[in-house]
Specification:
- This protein has 17 helices and 15 strands.
- It is α/β, with parallel strands linked by helices.
- It folds into four domains: 104 residues, HprK N-terminal domain-like (Udp-n-acetylmuramoylalanyl-d-glutamate--2,6- Diaminopimelate Ligase, Chain: A, domain 1); 109 residues, Dynein light chain 2a, cytoplasmic (Beta-Lactamase); 122 residues, Alpha-Beta Plaits; 86 residues, Arc Repressor Mutant, subunit A (Orthogonal Bundle), CATH 1.10.10.2840.
- It has a five-stranded mixed β-sheet.
- This is Purine catabolism regulatory protein.
- It holds the Pfam family HTH_30.
């Protein structure tokens, strides 16, 4: 710890004449000078030493105020040479502005003060170097251990005696130490938006916070905070940034290779299912036992990545491990009925299609079902659509909505035009007739018209469309158009 004015005064027997409330200021350095305006030669934090050679009762007040502007830690005034005592105006002004003033008796040479401060600064620098070196070693051991980035973040928080957050490119918390540090994340949102590269220092409440970007293709941030971060803290944070950047980049490269391998195995399942399953068991220690539910999950790329990461991280408590891989715009998941609900819970905010249970040999069919149901879920903005329910709704659900709408409008246009002119009710009559499978009496009774009237209307339908209602194919087309 740096030497304070209070400690210096106590060790050398210096008398405090003003600014008693600020004696715990740390002394950055000592600078003796007789200049009445030494500000150009000061950096702030110094203990300024003077004998007051150029000072008197008239100039002392302005002199003190200039020192305050220069942010000096305090003033040591040597008596017994130029002045037998410190000018009263200097003491009064210093007391007013809160500047500590130490009276240095003639028997105490300025070199004794310089030596005491120099030794304290050297000891503090040495302690900082030792602490930094030990911190770097501990962080390196954490980085090469099994704990991964989380272990580095936890060790970093202990080393700086503060808190640390590892954030992804969107500002979401990846790791937090301690867990309560997550509460600081919302206050960092503005800093992250402004930070493109490098580091920023901010304040959140009583905490000084340094935020640094990580040098990784996936991009991310490290935020570290405490009451005040010293030089050793900052060196340790810089080490953590380098280690985390390296670890995350290696993880990203390894993860990309694993994902590509999963996709290759998914393709292999359609051609050589037994070989693919053997590879799954060799590489991941297991594979779901058929029959499988095949799930195809789609959504934004970011949401799919989040799902993939969740599937990679969590499966310890499952009765068996699902297999999952990327396939175009889908994350495809193979699982048993026992794990299906767990998987669906992880797909929050996405659109999932679920196949009927399929055997190993029928995987390709199950994949087509799942993808078709997933597209239907996306079109309906539904979280889950099961192929069994989707197919049960009929052929209408299997046709692209825009194509179906254009088809229906074209086919029914002459009938709608006829009805709009007030010359009949062909569309309603046609729908009723088809619903009763062409039974004239039942349909006529439903409509409340004579069966001959209904026959005349159906002949008009044939005339306007140019096709005969005795064709099952044409009846199916008309029914599809009316459903749309």
């Amino acid at each position: 710890m740096a030497l304070t004015l209070r400690e210096l005064a106590g060790s050398l027997g210096l008398v405090v004449r003003a600014g008693e409330g600020a004696l715990d200021r740390a002394i950055g350095w000592v600078h003796p000078t007789e200049l009445t305006d030494p500000n150009a030669f000061l950096e702030g934090g110094e203990l300024l030493l003077t004998t007051g050679l150029a000072l008197d009762e008239h100039t002392s007040g302005a002199y003190v105020r200039r020192l305050v502007e220069a942010r000096v830690a305090g003033l040591g005034f040597g008596v017994g040479l130029s002045h037998l005592s410190i000018p009263a105006a200097l003491v009064a002004t210093a007391a007013e502005v809160g500047l500590p003033v130490l009276e240095v008796p003639r028997r105490t040479p300025f070199i004794a003060i310089t030596r005491a401060v120099s030794r304290a600064v050297a000891a503090d620098d040495y302690a900082s170097v030792v602490r930094t070196g030990r911190g770097q070693q501990e962080l390196t051991r954490a980085a090469v251990g099994r704990g991964g980035p989380g272990a580095v973040v936890r060790r970093l928080a202990r080393l700086v005696d503060g808190w640390a957050l590892l954030l992804d490119a969107g500002g979401a918390v990846v790791e937090a130490a301690p867990a309560s540090a997550r509460g600081f994340a919302p206050g960092l949102a503005g800093e992250l938006r402004r930070l493109k590269a490098g580091a920023r220092v901010a304040r959140i409440g009583e905490h000084e916070v340094v935020v640094q970007t990580l040098d990784t293709g996936a991009r991310g941030y490290l935020a570290v905070g405490k009451g005040a971060l010293d030089a050793a803290d900052r060196y340790i944070v810089n080490t953590a940034v380098s280690l985390l950047s390296l670890a995350l980049e290696q993880n990203r490269a390894h993860g990309g290779a694993v994902r590509r391998l999963r996709s290759v195995l998914l393709d292999l399942l359609a051609d050589k299912p037994e070989s693919a399953v053997r590879s799954m068991r060799t590489l991941w220690g297991g594979a779901p036992v058929p029959p499988w539910s095949v799930l195809a999950v789609t959504g934004t790329p970011a949401a799919r990545r989040t799902l993939f990461d969740a599937l990679e991280a969590e499966f310890e408590d499952l009765p068996e491990r699902p297999f999952f891989a990327e396939s175009g715009p889908f994350v495809v998941i193979l699982c048993s009925a026992d794990t299906e609900s767990w998987v669906l819970a992880k797909a929050t905010g996405l659109h999932t299609g679920v196949s009927v249970p399929v055997s190993l040999e029928d995987f390709a069919s199950g994949l087509r079902q799942a993808e078709q149901a997933s597209r239907a879920a996306q079109a309906k903005r539904a979280p889950v659509v099961r192929f069994a329910d989707h197919a049960a709704r009929g052929v209408v659900e299997l046709v692209d909505p825009a194509v179906a709408q254009a088809f229906a409008e074209t086919l029914l246009a002459p009938l709608r035009l006829h009805d709009e002119t007030g010359r009949g009710d062909l569309i309603t009559s046609l729908r009723c007739w088809l619903e009763h499978h062409g039974h004239w009496d039942l349909a006529a009774n439903q409509l409340g018209v004579h069966r001959h009237t209904l026959r005349n209307r159906m002949r008009k339908v044939e005339e306007l469309t140019g096709r005969g209602l005795d064709s099952p194919g044409f009846r199916a087309e008309l029914w599809l158009a009316l459903q749309v």
